[in-house]
């Protein structure tokens, strides 16, 4: 049996007139994340962690932001497709840990739904999908509510 570890980081700007999609869930807020896709920073970080674990490049290599195919795409589709690449290599996920840096809103009430959404896509239980959050204590671009950051770590086994 082989094991591999991967980490992913994603950052998106927050702006008006966009939905805030986090972990595949719509989180009501006066600003949303700006991007070529639905800009789901948490799902993107998980995709990058999955790809990183097998040195398969990153999300922009597989789903370029210059392609019309991915304009406005639901990042749940990107996560599903990323995991298909991992499975083709003969690996499966053991567990995921992640942290969101977001000043507002509080995401705690939405975490169970995010865990459930991600677990369903990846064939995991919610205990295998950890989602944490922290504010940036009002410092920097996260603290000024201008952006959101996600970090994810995944463990794979073959
Ligand atoms: N966007 C966020 C940020 C934080 N939380 C939860 O609040 C707790 C306290 O956050 P601090 O940054 O003040 O330490 C944190 O542990 C999270 O549980 C959240 O839900 N959404
Ligand atoms: C997902 C992609 C593609 O739609 O677009 P964005 O939503 O801009 O997201 P980013 O995290 O910059 O990653 C790469 C892109 O390829």
From TrEMBL:
The record marks 36, 135 as: Transition state stabilizer. It is an enzyme of class 4 (lyase). It comes from the Bacteria. GO terms for biological process: isopentenyl diphosphate biosynthetic process, methylerythritol 4-phosphate pathway; terpenoid biosynthetic process. The keyword Lyase applies. Binds 1 divalent metal cation per subunit. A divalent metal cation binds at residues 10, 12, 44. Keywords: Isoprene biosynthesis, Lyase, Metal-binding. One of its GO terms (molecular function) is metal ion binding. Pfam families: YgbB (PF02542). Its cofactor is a divalent metal cation. Signal peptide: none annotated. 4-CDP-2-C-methyl-D-erythritol 2-phosphate binds at residues 10-12, 36-37, 58-60, 134-137, 144. HAMAP family: IspF. Belongs to the IspF family. Involved in the biosynthesis of isopentenyl diphosphate (IPP) and dimethylallyl diphosphate (DMAPP), two major building blocks of isoprenoid compounds. Catalyzes the conversion of 4-diphosphocytidyl-2-C-methyl-D-erythritol 2-phosphate (CDP-ME2P) to 2-C-methyl-D-erythritol 2,4-cyclodiphosphate (ME-CPP) with a corresponding release of cytidine 5-monophosphate (CMP). Homotrimer. This is 2-C-methyl-D-erythritol 2,4-cyclodiphosphate synthase. It comes from Cnuella takakiae. The lineage of its organism: Bacteria, Pseudomonadati, Bacteroidota, Chitinophagia, Chitinophagales. The gene is ispF.
């Amino acid at each position: 049996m082989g094991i591999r570890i991967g980490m992913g980081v994603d950052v998106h700007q927050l702006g008006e007139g966009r939905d805030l999609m986090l972990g595949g869930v719509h989180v009501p807020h006066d600003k949303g994340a700006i991007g070529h896709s639905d800009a789901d920073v948490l799902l993107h970080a998980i995709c990058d962690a999955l790809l990183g674990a097998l040195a398969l490049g990153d999300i922009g290599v597989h789903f370029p932001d210059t392609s019309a195919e991915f304009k406005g795409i639901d990042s749940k589709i990107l996560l599903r497709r990323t995991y298909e690449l991992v499975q083709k290599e003969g690996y499966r996920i053991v567990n995921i840990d992640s942290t969101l840096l977001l000043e507002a809103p509080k995401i705690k009430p939405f975490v169970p739904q995010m865990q459930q959404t991600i677990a369903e896509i990846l064939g995991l239980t919610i205990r295998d999908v950890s989602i944490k959050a922290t504010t940036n204590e009002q410092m920097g671009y996260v603290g000024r509510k201008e952006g959101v950051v996600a970090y994810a770590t995944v463990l794979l086994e073959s």
